[in-house]
């Protein structure tokens, strides 16, 4: 059985990004930038007023001074005048600072009498002026390639003057449930049918992470049905199968893939849940064979499929699993040869430091209700000794 970290590295090793496309800014949130974004202009492009008031020379902006108002400047309508000594212009928030002026007196500090402004307070040089380029300069790199765009990035790209962005194409990921007992949610209830929960859960995770998912028809436990569905791999960027990966007589995923030319990389890893995980390539398409137990399928999707998807999308992915420290909320017994990923709740520590992760006593990989109630997975190394409540541990947050 392969070590989890080695298996993860082997999956990520030869994956390539799957190309670029250009999308409108309004559709770009959540996508991954494939080309950096540079500012078309400085922000602000010219120095502007941050307040409604009067622009003047700082040397004139003294309490008690009376200045001659020589123009009025709304935002978006620059003035042609140059402010001289003893003069000021009326202007509004966002309006360009006229030549000759170097301070803004807010209107609350001015008594206006006709075309004269009497200052009731002094103003410093540069006060209430947003200097040209104070946010960014023309050609500055605003956003690097490989960044997943959030709402604030969209705002910055818009401020930089961009209406189209070059992003990674959404990987097309096929999801193939297998098994004679698998039926669709919504099918009539047969006595021994199992609703296909795993495909919907894995598809939801991968969509949330940026994939376009394609739900393939359920393959039955025979070679013809499985090879027919697996041949669709050629049209996909990645194919994820669920079930039929273990050692039973009807676990035909590997034989079916072998028949149509799978180059298998590995099968079976030292992990619980997730032992029968398989990875290989059919032509150019990576194939990940997940175990059928739905919790095992989900945990393997978090640990292996999601980073593979991120790599296809051009997101930087570390080879190490990203974990966080916590402390155990209950005793745990010694571990065997498989790295454990225990479903657990997470609660704030009474001392306010590291949070407390408490694994459920039931860890059956078919129990979706316990998975739903969990916030984290507690990681336990192979052969870890028994540990008491209060011992430090490492966790992964569940998406
Ligand atoms: N003798 C051994 N038996 C098993 C071993 C082993 O090492 N030796 N490994 C066990 C482990 S660990 C796992 S995990 C399972 C995985 O087996 P398969 O990948 O072959 O999965 P299936 O047998 O097809 O299904 C297992 C279980 O999950 C249900 N299932 C399958 N697909 C779905 C789906 N899409 N949605 C919901 N539930 C699904 C299926 O009905 C089975 O109950 O093997 C152990 N056996
Ligand atoms: O990988 Mo299985 O889910 O451990 O029973």
Automatic annotation (TrEMBL):
Keywords: Magnesium, Metal-binding, Molybdenum, Molybdenum cofactor biosynthesis, Transferase. InterPro entries: MoaB/Mog-like_dom_sf (IPR036425), MoaB/Mog_dom (IPR001453), MoCF_biosynth_CS (IPR008284), MoeA-like (IPR038987), MoeA_C_domain_IV_sf (IPR036688), MoeA_linker/N (IPR005110), MoeA_linker/N_sf (IPR036135). Catalyzes the insertion of molybdate into adenylated molybdopterin with the concomitant release of AMP. SUPFAM superfamilies: MoeA C-terminal domain-like, MoeA N-terminal region -like, Molybdenum cofactor biosynthesis proteins. The lineage of its organism: Bacteria, Pseudomonadati, Pseudomonadota, Alphaproteobacteria, Acetobacterales. Pathway: Cofactor biosynthesis; molybdopterin biosynthesis. GO terms for biological process: Mo-molybdopterin cofactor biosynthetic process. Residues 174-311 form the MoaB/Mog domain. Belongs to the MoeA family. It comes from Acetobacter ascendens. This is Molybdopterin molybdenumtransferase. One of its GO terms (cellular component) is cytosol. GO terms for molecular function: metal ion binding; molybdopterin molybdotransferase activity. Its cofactor is Mg(2+). Pfam families: MoCF_biosynth (PF00994), MoeA_N (PF03453). Its EC number is 2.10.1.1.
């Amino acid at each position: 059985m392969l070590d989890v970290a080695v298996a993860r590295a082997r999956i990520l090793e030869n994956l390539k990004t799957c190309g670029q496309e250009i999308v409108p800014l309004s559709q770009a949130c959540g996508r991954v930038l494939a080309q950096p974004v540079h500012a078309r202009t400085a922000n602000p492009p010219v120095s502007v007023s941050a307040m409604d008031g009067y622009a003047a020379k700082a040397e004139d902006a003294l309490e008690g001074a009376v200045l001659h108002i020589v123009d009025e400047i709304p935002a978006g309508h620059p003035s042609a005048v140059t402010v001289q000594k003893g003069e000021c212009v009326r202007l509004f928030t966002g309006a360009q600072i006229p030549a000759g002026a170097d301070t803004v007196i807010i209107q609350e500090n001015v008594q206006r009498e006709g075309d004269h402004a009497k200052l009731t307070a002094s103003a410093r040089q540069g006060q209430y002026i947003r200097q040209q380029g104070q946010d960014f300069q023309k050609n500055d790199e605003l956003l690097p390639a490989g960044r997943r765009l959030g709402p604030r990035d969209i705002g910055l790209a818009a401020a930089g003057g961009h209406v189209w962005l070059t992003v990674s194409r959404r990987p097309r990921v096929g999801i193939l449930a297998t098994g004679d007992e698998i039926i669709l949610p919504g099918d009539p209830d047969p006595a021994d049918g199992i609703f296909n929960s795993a495909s919907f859960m894995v598809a939801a995770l991968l969509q949330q992470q940026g994939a376009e998912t394609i739900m393939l028809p359920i393959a039955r436990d025979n070679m013809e049905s499985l090879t027919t569905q697996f041949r669709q791999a050629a049209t996909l960027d990645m194919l994820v199968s669920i079930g039929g990966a273990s050692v039973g007589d009807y676990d035909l995923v590997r034989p079916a893939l072998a028949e149509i030319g799978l180059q298998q990389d590995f099968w079976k890893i030292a992990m619980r849940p997730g032992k029968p995980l398989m990875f290989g390539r059919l032509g150019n398409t990576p194939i990940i064979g997940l175990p059928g137990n739905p919790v095992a399928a989900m945990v393997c999707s978090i640990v292996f499929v999601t980073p593979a998807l991120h790599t296809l999308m051009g997101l930087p992915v570390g080879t190490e699993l990203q974990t966080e420290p916590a402390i155990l909320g209950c005793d745990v017994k010694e571990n065997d040869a498989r790295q454990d990923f225990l479903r657990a709740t997470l609660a704030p520590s009474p001392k306010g430091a590291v949070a407390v992760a408490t694994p459920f006593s039931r860890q059956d990989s078919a129990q979706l209700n316990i998975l739903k109630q969990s916030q984290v997975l507690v990681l336990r190394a192979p052969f870890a000794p028994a540990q008491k409540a209060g011992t430090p541990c490492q966790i992964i947050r569940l998406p």
